[in-house]
Amino acid sequence: MSITLFQFATKKSGLQTFLDRYQYILSIVATFLFFSDLPDYLHTTAMLPLNPLAWIGIFIFLSLPFIKKIATIPKPLIIWMVLYIVISMLSLATISSDEASMKEIRMRVLSLAFLCMMYALYEQKSLKHVKYVILAVVLMSVGNDFFELLNPKVFTELNVGRPGGFYINPNKSGCALVLGLIFTIDIVKKQHRWLYLLVVGAGIACTFSRGSLLGWTLCALFLTIARVLSDKRRTVLISIVSLVLLLALTNPLKNAADFFGGNEGASWDVVDRLEQFQNPSLEDDSAKERKAVVGYAWLMFGNHPFWGNGLASTHKWTVSEVSTHNMYLLYMADHGILGFIILPGAIWAVAWRNRGEPGFRILCFVVFMSLWGIFSHDILEEKYILCTFALLAAMNTNQQWYHKYSHDRFQAAQAPEHGRLILPPARNQPSIESGYSQRLLPPSRK
Fold this sequence. Notes:
It is built from 18 helices and no strands. The protein has helices spanning 14-35, 38-44, 52-62, 75-94, 99-121, 124-150, 170-184, 193-207, 210-225, 233-249, 252-262, 268-278, 285-303, 327-335, 342-351, 359-372, 383-410, 431-440.
């Protein structure tokens, strides 16, 4: 039995062509807005009186024509979302049901709705262009961080003092840059990847975010080992030698601290962080705050290790104005020992058997997200992070569909004795199909 590739080609209707283009444009616009965190920035600075939740609602409405694609969400992700909601609802029904808990459950449901929406928008033909959009956001964010380092609080007076750009929070900016690096490094020409890596690293350094700097260092190590960067050992050697010489001949941290300290109007938070980097034993206010809330969260978990203290328990305490700064401890304080698996479960759901992307990207994503859970308690609420979860899930689904389609459709075309795809002679068929036949037929033996 023989078949041709053109037996399965169907001509698209005008409506389907329009919907394809509409979905493509919508995925590009949504990625730019939500990965750059522009809706939150415009609302926080009162430049546009539109609540960030309204932005999500608008895009959910615009993506309704593609709601059927939600049925193709990978099973591990479906299982995790169901368990996440079940655990949250049980905690709400049995332990806490006050206003703060209701706000938390609404936020979790909205986050899952946003994740499903972004997944529905991502199609195979738009994935590469989505990466280019993320690349543009990364370069824009690096420029914003450099500009705000020299002009403190130029984006908003609500900034904590260190550069954050449109993300306002410098830790969020650093996290977004690391994620952008992970998803875009392969679309940069190989001879330019070292330069791109260093540019992103410089942008992260402007934020003085310790977790982001550590994540960038680990990603750079993995990318080097996987030979994603330039294969020339001389490039690596020159970079290392130059860095060692720079640190040996100068004291850049001290010079930078002196510069910002003597610069009138400069952010003292930047000076404090520079001094903390020079003397790791010196704890700044941020480190002291994190240490205190971690201790409180552990105490709450120790008091209720099995069922937890209920939804939003760390948002209702009076010992601090902030939560745990730790995703694992937040869920453990809320849901007990079962809460520890929520974040690893989300990471596993999009990374497990994901053959849609190179192994280095999956590894970097898993390691960085697992690490970032120690530094942030907002991972599963941040839109720019959820965009990457949806992107990985869409890549996995498209790859699975490709393998299933090729297996089911073309299995009958395999010649048992040779295992080669057999196509009939191109008689009275378009010339393009003849080209396919000539390329796919095995060479003739004379």
